[in-house]
TrEMBL record:
Pfam families: SNF
Encoding gene, per UniProt annotation: yocR
Compartments (UniProt record): Membrane
Primary localization: membrane
Membrane topology: Multi-pass membrane protein
InterPro entries xrefs: Na/ntran_symport, SNS_sf, YocR/YhdH-like
High-level lineage: Bacteria, Bacillati, Bacillota, Bacilli, Bacillales
Origin species: Sporosarcina newyorkensis 2681
A cellular component term, taken from the record's GO annotations: membrane
Keywords: Membrane, Transmembrane, Transmembrane helix, Transport
Source superkingdom: Bacteria
Annotated TM spans: 12-30, 42-64, 85-114, 134-156, 168-187, 207-231, 252-274, 294-320, 340-361, 381-399, 420-438
Protein name: Neurotransmitter:Na+ symporter
Amino acid sequence: MKQREQWTSKIGFILAAAGSAIGLGAIWKFPYMAGTNGGSVFVLLFIICTLLIGLPILLAEFVIGRRGQADAVTSLKKLSTGRNWAWVGWMGLASSFIILSFYSVVGGWILSYLARAFTFNLGELDYGELFDSIIANPVEVLLAQALFMGLTIWIVQSGIRGGIERASRWIMPLLFLSFIVLAIRSLTLEGAMEGVRFLFVPDWSYFNGTTFLVALGQAFFSLSVGVTAMMTYASYLSKEEKLGQSAFNVSILNIGISILAGLVIFPAVFALGHSPAAGPGLIFVILPAIFNEIPFGAVFLIIFFLLMLFATITSSIAMLEIVVSTGIRNKHDRRRRASWVFGGLIFLVGIPSALSFGLLSDVNVFGNTIFDFADLLTSRIAMPIGALAVSLFAGFILTKEDTAEELRMNSALHSLWKVIVRYFAPLAIVVIFFSWIFGM
């Protein structure tokens, strides 16, 4: 078996891992989840869930991945010493497959808007009608989804160093710069402070089990934990890198970008008299209308959708890499073909999600559109279960010697991490999960 590829540097790994985390979870999903779940209380719970539950589990994935030095399925099988834990890797692979199948649909929407923005075809329009017409147009959504998947496949087929790391080194700095420019513009609008208060002044009536579960699911979704993405990325990491520092950096970057996204969107939403609870269409319906009302709005709209595209691609390549890594098992000569085969299959599986707002809009799965059901199945069910399994595996299956060798932290911090992944994180996941199940 050929030697496994490795990242060329620590910064390359952190940017790629942060890129996986800082995707639509931070820019598309976080704002509308915050908008429909009370704003500041959701933000507070999201930060708590990220640091107390998401970060330790992220670190657990890093430990398992680097210790195993293989795809998630192989690593879990190799490290479980006779016990059958490979199912966690297979479930993570299946979750990534499903997530990317509907994630690529949203990526296609972004490309549709970006094409219109570049041609200045987003002028005086009813943006609600425009959004509805785009997502209901079967030809446009499928072509855009195919183009987005093609871009994702093109990056992943080039490997870790030549594809994923190189793309992340360019995309992530551009993403941060775009966010800063847009946040400054949004905060300078008259009445913007209402949006800031919405994000940072708590409304405690939203403090309940449902909001907690949604915040926990958002923490998992935005950190890419529970689907073995971080496990896969860490398997390409050298033994010299400090896992704890890398995990903390990724978590802080994720929180920071999520809040920045809120500072881009909500001050503008409130300044121009729109509702923060617009749901998934917030960035596709409300934001174009907002940018249309400010000087040089067309330019800022192009910047925003380029930012969206950058963030979406960095996450999509991580999800496709999980599938490809498992398929090729370190046989690098198979990467190009595997990328196109698996990427094509994901596109085909995503077709029902793409059509769920048009031709298949009458098809419901437990009261949800196909698109919404795929989201619910992964973010509220599969990802928490996967995160629970990863936490228990790192806490009870990996030996203290194994984890100590990988983490290289002082004994007090190592013991605290063990307690969290053994008891606190699993208990929190179970309690919140069942509070949502019985509250449905």
